[in-house]
Amino acid sequence: MEVLRRVFGYDTFRGEQQEIVEHVIAGGDALVLMPTGGGKSLCYQVPALVREGVGVVVSPLIALMQDQVDALRALGVRAGFLNSTQDPDERRMVEAEFLSGELDLLYLAPERLRSEATLRLLDRGTISLFAIDEAHCVAQWGHDFRPDYLALSTLGQRWPKVPRIALTATATEATRAEIVSRLGLADARSFVASFDRPNIQYRIVPKNDPRKQLLALLRAEHQGDSGIVYCLSRASVERTADFLVRSGIEALPYHAGLDPRTRAEHQSRFLREDGLVMVATIAFGMGIDKPDVRFVAHLDLPRSIEGYYQETGRAGRDGLPSTAWLTYGLQDVVQQRKLIDGSEGDDAHRRRLAAHLDAMLALCETARCRREHLLDYFGQSGSSCGNCDTCLSPPETWDGTVAAQKVMSTVVRLLRERRQKFGAGQVVDILLGRKTAKVIEHDHDTLSVFGIGTELREAEWRGVVRQLLAQQLLAVEGDYGTLVLTDASGEVLRGQRPVMLRREPEPAPRARATGAG
Ligand code: ADP
Where are the annotated segments for Disordered (predicted)? Predict the structure, then answer.
């Protein structure tokens, strides 16, 4: 308590911080799961100051180390770091400080621990504890595996008397189990905070014109608010920021392609000023601690629920009502599957990516409460929140078996009769009986399935295809995102398996109004 007050200037611990701090000070190992903003840092910083020796903090966030160390120094904590951005002189100076006990905290990039020289250095000093930040990076089945983290498995053997505290903001039960086994933390005490962020309203809407949909949201609900808009690509970050600025909204771009000075300037403006919208790739946000971010909007589908949860978690740290809004469509599924197919690494790695994407899609397509679904994913129970989009306007489901059969039959006919594969756009045009240039060119108006789907609108057909992809009743392949059947498609085609679908909402009138004006 004395350290908490004197050094950090806080009166009380939050949540389970005190128990964790006491446990680690007493020399116990700990696994801490706490959502972003929950206050994980104090859980190792306070014990490091109380126990004798230097607290060694392993963190993958090399870009943030300088900031973290500066912030600690401003509080009078003797902190330093070792990573690849330093020149040998700087490194030697920090090493000397470590050895002479002039440090309270030493931040280390994980790859440092693969070098015998670093291990020998650590042998020669006195270590008060090891803190393993972002511990989910050690889990191969996690969403953010980093091979360098595997080197951490030896810490317990090499320094059995030094307490270890592993911390993460995202871990499913499977990932948690893998952290425990890889880091040898079977005897560690687990501290699992609730992952619920009750003040965040989760909303996931079908994508038709994402920038206009976003603008409608900002104008209707977040005029003058600070917020973050995530896009997948740098180009789309630039386009979206431009669009917002032209629409009278103060917005700044942030991505790895900008020069470091511009990036730093945009980041500090976002932190300092009120009502700025940061349009960014996921490179933005790590370690950003701005309490009054009122909304986080995703214009593209995140790759995993873990990523989505971490990104949306940057909203509403002050506890006030905030919005997590995501728009996603058929093209997102096609694009993400394509990225996975083309990704480096072995089959197991691709399967892992696919499993994470499927979990994300299941969240998007769920008819359940979004919050309940999210908490369930992280192994926690909740009940319907009454505040997310599915609670506020429960989606209608409908028997989409016949519609699914029509889509699948079209894919089958193209393949069997024409030896062709096409993407969703052509399949939908065929179902709707549209004589487009591409339909005429390929003679697709003579297929028996031509025009058999006039009962649904185009957006509805795209919704059907998207949901079939999400349910893995259909798959995409190749650079052009052509549709193919899956092992499960046969059961649907033979009428052995019903397909329930969410009804596509009518396009929002608001989005249409701004579209026209
Ligand atoms: P995390 O690492 O879990 O995302 P941080 O450790 O960065 O969270 O803490 C988030 C914010 O909460 C920081 O601004 C921190 O200073 C503040 N904080 C943490 N613990 C306390 C506390 N006991 N009292 C007041 N503020 C706290």
Answer: 503-517
